Amino acid sequence: MGPDEQLQIMYGTDGRRDLTEFVLPHWEGYRKSYPVRVGNGAQNQLQLDIYGELLDSIYLYDKYGEPISYELWRQLVRLIDWVCENWDQADEGIWEVRGGRQPFFYSRLMCWVAIDRGLRLAAKRSLPAVERWLKVRDDIYHQIHTEFWNEKLQSFVQTKRGTTLDAASLLAPLVRFISPTDPRWLSTLKAIEQNLVDDSLVYRYKTEDGLTGSEGTFCMCSFWFIECVARSGDIDKARFLFEKMLGYANHLGLYPEELGPSGEHLGNFPQAFTHMSLISAAFQLNRSLDERGR
Question: Is the pTM above the cut of 0.90?
Answer without folding.
Answer: no
